[in-house]
Design goal:
The structure is a single chain. The protein is globular and about 55 Å long. It has a 3-stranded antiparallel sheet with strand order 2-1-3. It has 7 helices and 3 strands. By secondary structure, the protein is mainly alpha-helical. A hairpin with a 4-residue loop joins strand 1 and strand 2. Helices cover 52% and strands 12% of the residues. It binds manganese (II) ion. The site of manganese (II) ion has 7 residues, from helix 1.
Length: 199
């Protein structure tokens, strides 16, 4: 298969107490894996359609490609955006850009948390670089693929599907988001910004 589930960059229990071992394990080994499997399946079905010339199910498989492909990309980012040594305030280039585009880190954090908590149903809060305006944007997405802005590069993502937090935080999504800030790997976010800004 073309796409593989990446290893976590830390142990399952490394993000305790903010992110519990049981949820991390299930989230990575079962949920993320299902997106990788779904992406591989959609990729294979689309190749079959080209080989046979049978495009009767094309709408379905293109939708599957968008859903599972976006799910896979966002989860890869999500794991790498967190670290046992994360949290605190950003420094360097990312801190300067946040101040420039949102006024202050506190204003950014409040905006990001509010937007992410308000996602309708399952989705994500996303900090992205917009190369057309040369600004950071806070965006939200429903499921993995709806409401996306074309052309932006996601730098930092917070998963607010119930599978991401329900075991520990139940229906308290804002409590999960508040805990998640303690895990943000700002070095990783900064490296992504520097790369994205060069494109
Ligand atoms: Mn997830």
């Amino acid at each position: 298969m073309v796409y593989k589930l990446p290893e976590l960059p830390y142990a399952y229990d490394a993000l305790e107490p903010y992110y519990d071992e049981q949820t991390v394990k299930l989230h990575h080994d079962a949920h993320h894996k299902s997106y990788v499997d779904g992406l591989n399946n959609a990729t294979r079905k689309l190749a079959e359609a080209r080989e046979t010339g049978d495009y009767a199910m094309i709408k379905h498989w293109e939708r599957e490609l968008a859903f599972h492909g976006s799910g896979h990309v966002l989860h890869c980012l999500f794991w790498n955006n967190m670290s046992p040594d994360g949290g605190g305030n950003p420094e360097g280039v990312i801190a300067e850009q946040i101040d420039k585009d949102f006024g202050s880190f506190e204003a950014f954090k409040k905006h990001f948390s509010s937007a992410t908590a308000a996602v309708e149903g399952s989705g994500w809060g996303i900090l992205a670089w917009n190369p057309y305006t040369e600004k950071l944007e806070i965006m939200t997405t429903e499921k993995h693929q709806n409401l996306a802005i074309w052309g932006v590069t996601p730098l930092l993502v917070c998963d607010v599907w119930e599978h991401a937090y329900y075991l520990k935080y139940q229906n308290k999504r804002p409590a999960w988001i508040e805990a998640w800030w303690n895990l943000v790997n700002w070095k990783d976010v900064e490296e992504r910004l520097v790369k994205a800004a060069k494109l």
